[in-house]
Specification:
The complex is a heterodimer of chains A (about 110) and B (about 120). Chain A is mainly β and about 110 residues long. Chain A is built from no helices and eleven strands. Classes of the chains: A mainly beta (about 110), B mainly beta (about 120).
Chain lengths: ~110, ~120
Amino acid sequence: GQNIDQPTEMTATEGAIVQINCTYQTSGFNGLFWYQQHAGEAPTFLSYNVLDGLEEKGRFSSFLSRSKGYSYLLLKELQMKDSASYLCAVRGRYGQNFVFGPGTRLSVLP
Amino acid sequence: NAGVTQTPKFRVLKTGQSMTLLCAQDMNHEYMYWYRQDPGMGLRLIHYSVGEGTTAKGEVPDGYNVSRLKKQNFLLGLESAAPSQTSVYFCASSSAGTTGAETQYFGPGTRLLVL
């Protein structure tokens, strides 16, 4: 079976750092993706990890540990516009299927 | 480039009615997907296609049919709508690629209400 877990909601303050965790159990693994989704809009791509370690992209970083089935998305210098849902998705062994977690709704407060 | 477009944006159906959702992409992507998104459940894959003329079932295919007669279009059909199909439907596409970093690009979504 396939299972991806994320916290449902998180709250943080403008200017702070927040870490959103994702744990997964899947029958195959061919990469982990993070997407951002603002309310009423489509998901948009943030980051991709396929090897263990940290990938940094400006204010956003994503970490992967394949042995632990664990990833996190780190958002630095939070801005109000970062209030959104963050979706963790694992691509299966054959590359066509993506399995999404339930998403974490982040609220950034002034 | 328009990217991925979906029509209609919003639709209200009565139980038992049928409809077709259209997805179009202009990025020459091989793979196309249909998802539904419900509160607290994330995106769930309905059907997908790895090329023109081919389709496959995803996680929640019951009650839906799809067709991909042209590479750029992917149609999702509801033959007899049920209230449980009230949801937001997203279409996505991605390239086949070889790097592994080929992400999905999503359309703006179709909001469907079945009464």
